[in-house]
Write a structure and sequence with these properties.
By secondary structure, this protein is an alpha+beta fold. It has 3 helices and 5 strands, in the order E-E-H-E-E-E-H-H.
């Protein structure tokens, strides 16, 4: 019985195991989809929305969406990147993040995403 499936992310063919989420399959194939709330030992909730992707013109979270054979996923496109930038901006504007005095400064996923999306 074949347990692998194939689908595409931004035109790149991805091979995944049945039952994997899109973000797990992407990571296993060297494709980066940003996340802030997805941890290996915790059930994914999709609450940060950083892993937002587009499938058939529908916005979904890559950490909670199971990969399926033949799907076409868009991740690194302007409208998705604008959504991600807006999320990062909202997190910093909330006032709970003051990078210069944080012990994680320089080794922080949120800070790295701020630089990545030119915030």
């Amino acid at each position: 019985m074949n347990t692998t499936i194939k689908f595409k992310i931004d035109g790149k063919e991805i091979i995944a195991e049945k039952g994997q989420t899109i973000v797990e399959a992407a990571t296993a194939n060297g494709v980066y989809i940003p996340t802030l709330c997805n941890y290996e030992s915790i059930k994914p909730k999709g609450c940060c929305r950083m892993c937002t992707i587009k499938i058939n013109n529908r916005y979904m979270t890559a950490c909670t969406t199971p990969a399926s054979d033949g799907m076409e996923v868009e991740s690194n496109i302007p409208d998705i990147n604008d959504i991600r930038k807006g999320i990062i901006e909202l997190l910093f504007v909330s006032g709970n993040h003051f990078c210069p005095s944080c012990e994680k400064s320089g080794n922080c996923d949120l800070q790295a995403l701020g630089y990545r999306y030119q915030m």
